[in-house]
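Lecture notes, part 5. Sequence design as translation. It can be helpful to think of inverse folding as translation between two languages: the language of shapes and the language of residues. The source text, in structure tokens, appears below.
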């Protein structure tokens, strides 16, 4: 796997991290979760920037947001007891299929 894809996947996981930790910031009034959220946001965007040096921006952005959206939805189910209906899992699967399709489509 090329280094740019490692940057992009890591950026996606940081996207999940900041989205989940946002729940604990209480409107950015609780210091540690707020600092973690801000650091994860900056790290995610920085790694996305590094990834786009080799990966087309449309592909990189779609993969980044896809990882973030699917991962945050799953985290919401696991951590916060959000809906776990079959239809929701099917939609998450569609997001993941789209991300995989973009990765395969550009050949690498």
């Amino acid at each position: 796997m090329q280094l740019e894809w490692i940057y992009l996947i890591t950026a996606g996981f940081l996207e999940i991290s900041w989205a989940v930790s946002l729940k604990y910031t209480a409107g950015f009034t609780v210091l540690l979760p707020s600092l973690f959220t801000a650091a994860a946001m900056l790290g995610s965007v920085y790694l996305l920037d590094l990834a786009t040096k080799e990966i087309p921006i449309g592909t990189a952005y779609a993969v980044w947001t896809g990882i973030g959206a699917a991962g945050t939805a799953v985290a919401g189910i696991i951590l916060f007891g959000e809906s776990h209906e079959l239809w929701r899992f099917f939609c998450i699967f569609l997001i993941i299929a789209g991300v995989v399709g973009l990765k395969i489509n550009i050949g690498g």
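The translated text above is only one of many valid answers, since several sequences can fold into similar shapes. Residues 3-105 form one domain.
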